[in-house]
Task: structure prediction
Amino acid sequence: MRRALALLLVAAAAQAEPVGYALDLTHTFVTVEVVHGGLSTTRLRFDRKQGTLEVDRAAGTGRVEVTLEMASVKSGVEAFDRQLQGPDFFDVAAHPTARFVGDRFSFAGNRVAEVAGTLTLKGRSEAVVLKATNFDCYTSPLFKREVCGGDFTATVARSRFGLGGLPALAPDEVRLLVQVEGVRL
Amino acid sequence: MKRAAWLLAFACGTVAAEPRVFRLDPAHTFVHFEVLHFGTSTLRGRIGPVDGAVTLDTAAKRGELGLRIRTATVDTGLRVLDSRLREPDLLAVEAYPEAYFVSRSFRFDGDAVAEVRGEFTLRNVSVPLSLKALRFACRDEGARRRCGGDFEGFVDRGDFGMSFGLPLIANRTRLLVTVEALSD
Result:
């Protein structure tokens, strides 16, 4: 009995170890939604990125780091992309990357419900909380490994990052949509 | 004075009652699609810009719309996936280079377009589609008028014969049409 309990404790301890995931960059995208002039939504997507993900579901902790290459912004309109890359907006020559470090994970049962952290963009760091709208894990038939991921959203005031230009054309609040999947290492 | 006010109201009323023709603004008109991947995360793509025209008669609460969607413009942020989506079992862009949405049934909420019901044609298969406005507004831009909004609708991709990856990659596809148009 004692031995069984000891084994159980060992098993629990093993489960409590943080598990590393390689971000699946084909299913990891950051999209920004901006309402144009009170009319329609423009979606910006950042196509080049990298990052790491670690989750300890037993301990209820985790850490995610995502770095976006700001020059890879794609709105579907090339002239607008160039404007966004320029000095009045992202100023990619001076600030080539943006970085999110999420180090405070909240769980609902076994699922990640919220990731709080810091977004550094254009030289400014601000607290951002990403809320999960989807989260699950599955065994990938392609990788033959566990994949965990989800969808997360946050609302951010762009002026806090020195991106408050053209206030008449777009509100200060923009919405982040983050798709993320990671393959267990 | 009373007569002038009445004439003005009558004149404005008459002008407003005339249907106005709008052309879609390619910088602000796209079809976005969203599909749930393995029940876990949402795969997104964008098709467009979209060509077309809209006729709006806000006084009579009527409208007409025609969209031409060049499917080869599909852009997910992943070139390999874009190429895969263009293949014959999915968007089949060589056999069917364009998808269409045509509507003559507009529902208004006050002066704002609330819903557009019509027929969506993809891969030569036509299905009824209702697009509901998540937001809609108009404003003057010089002598012209700009109207736009976001419209949401749902289709089952399998209905168009696009069954690859079912059911792990979901059948139900959310369409988000972001659209702006300028009056002639």
In short: The CA atoms of residues 133 and 151 of chain A lie 5 Å apart. The radius of gyration of chain A is 19 Å.
